[in-house]
Amino acid sequence: FLHLASSIWKWGPRDIRGLSRTVAPEGSQRKGRALLQFLADHFYDVEALREYLFRKQVLKVHQKNRSFTHIKEQYGPYIAGAYFVLKQGGAVKFQGQEWMQSNGRGRFSLDFFKFQAVPVEAVDASGCAINYQGLDNLLALKELQSLSLQRCPHVDDWCLSRLHQLAGSLQELSLAGCPQVSERGLACLHHLQKLRRLDISDLPAVSNPGLTRILVEEMLPNCEVLGADWAQGLKLGPEEQS
């Protein structure tokens, strides 16, 4: 079964198009029905197929979050961190330089390798597949002032518990739209006393956004907290509501 599934994953676009032409030459709807029939004929255990696809996705995320040790040893932590972010599809900014980012195809210029001695001051990893392991590449950026992790699907409370390593420099942090960040993770940010701007909007795992914002503002009194209105999620009586 796994051998057959693996062979299907290895098909290229020509193979898929060839299969479509073979089984259903008359239209897209018929092609779809033929493909479903093909899967039903060859994969009897749907749960096994689902488990296989899940494991393949996990392996892909793990591969994206590996540490570029050889680059770090040869060029230093700034280059290694920047390379990691750009490979993920994000953007980086070295001190005194313009933003650098990959294009729509995931390609980017290697000109930043000449900034070996220039610290990275900002990282925009919005929507990237960064997880707990991948943070190793960012925590070595000790002069990092701005970090955007908004809409990162794998950033969770455990990830936030590691950000204390950036307490000496981090001033801006965005966690907006991170589905796995809850109140427990936000509580770990009390170490970041240099924060001046924190975005905690649109966090579905936070049960009471209004109360959470109040607590975060008390925890970080010098930080502007963006996100839910302070009354969001609070149960008010008729007099308070009016």
From TrEMBL:
InterPro entries: LRR_dom_sf (IPR032675). Coiled coil: none annotated. Required for the assembly of the mitochondrial NADH:ubiquinone oxidoreductase complex (complex I). Involved in the assembly of the distal region of complex I. Belongs to the ATP synthase subunit s family. Interacts with incompletely assembled mitochondrial NADH:ubiquinone oxidoreductase complex (complex I). This is Distal membrane-arm assembly complex protein 2.
